[in-house]
Amino acid sequence: MEYRQLGNSGLKVPVFGFGTATFGGKGDFFGAWGKSDVAEASRLIDICLEAGVNLFDTADVYSRGLSEEILGQALAGRRDKVLLSTKATFRMGKGPNELGSSRHHLLQACEASLRRLKTDYIDIYTMHGFDAQTPVEETLRTLDDLVQSGRVRYIGCSNFSGWHLMKSLAVSKQYGWARYVAHQAYYSLIGREYEWELMPLALDQKVGTVVWSPLAGGYLTGKVRRNQPPPAGSRHHQLKGQEPPITEELLYDIVDALDEVAAETGKSPAQIALNWLLQRPTVASVVIGARNETQLAQNLGALGWNLTDEQVAKLDAASDVRPIYPYWHQRGFIERNPLPVP
Questions:
Q1: Domains of the chain and any CATH numbers
Q2: What mean pLDDT comes out for the span 87-109?
Q3: Catalytic pick from 3, 62, 154, 219?
């Protein structure tokens, strides 16, 4: 297993982290992802640890806290061997203060996550989304207090815009508070918008990227092809309209390129898509998920080898899209605004 520095911190994280949104399966949305119980979760964690995957990612909203509960039970007796990452901000109840990144909600949310995870500290505490109704200063002061108290060791954010992240980093610097060392972002061959603004920012400010949905919700596994709809009973059927926007023609072009590289390497389309991400700038860790041991083993097969420059270029070309303004304009002045390269 390769371990990389997490942004501008001294923490080393594995290039693959394990996402536990499949633990619990409470409700229609998370039920479509997976329904691992404690026994299955424990076995998946065993496989991860044997492979060197010691970062486990969850969130309070995953199955209404059940994912955290199952993860905490499955890690009994081996908390010291792992890094735990969880998130807060999204709604956890019907009350007016049971969501957001206010001091009130974050202190309650952190304590609740600690109880469910059966631990007294969280390695990486992530704001699941930006809260525009709470002053950035209030959020960051609260997070700094959690770090100073020892209940949190590092802080991260997720799904922020460029200005959200940059403003937060500036406020942390102004007051000497803990800064975001990681940004958990949606990034894949089918979703490369991250490269337009957030990747240059991460390079400039030394923020590590933790990738979520690296296979675009399963679209890059090779199960969806031209004239071949998603398999019956798949997550795509159950979550129709709740997934990131995907243009079919672009998807098919990418899958064609994945098939070509698969023929050259003997690897699966999913393994190729994951390996491509591991060679991108700023990527510290890629969060993989699995409903069962077979899927986990297949994803782990993306490690230990690298695509050639020619294969990367083929995938880049197939997945490239014209960006929105001002990024298309900046591409016209590439010598002053060079694109990030591996």
A1: 3-331 (3.20.20.100)
A2: 96
A3: 62
Q: Which residues of 307-336 are buried (b: 16+ CB within 10 A; e: fewer)?
A: beeebbebbeebbeeebeeebeebeeeeee
Residue 229 has a CB neighbour count (10 Å cut-off) of: 11
Please indicate whether residue 194 is annotated as part of the active site: no
pLDDT grade, residue 222 (50/70/90)?
confident
Q: What is the pLDDT of residue 288?
A: 96
The mean pLDDT value for 47-74 works out to: 97
Here the tokens at position 240 are 């129709």
Is 0.90 topped by the overall pTM?
yes
Can you say whether residue 334 is alpha, beta or left, with left for phi > 0 and alpha for psi between -120 and 50 degrees? alpha
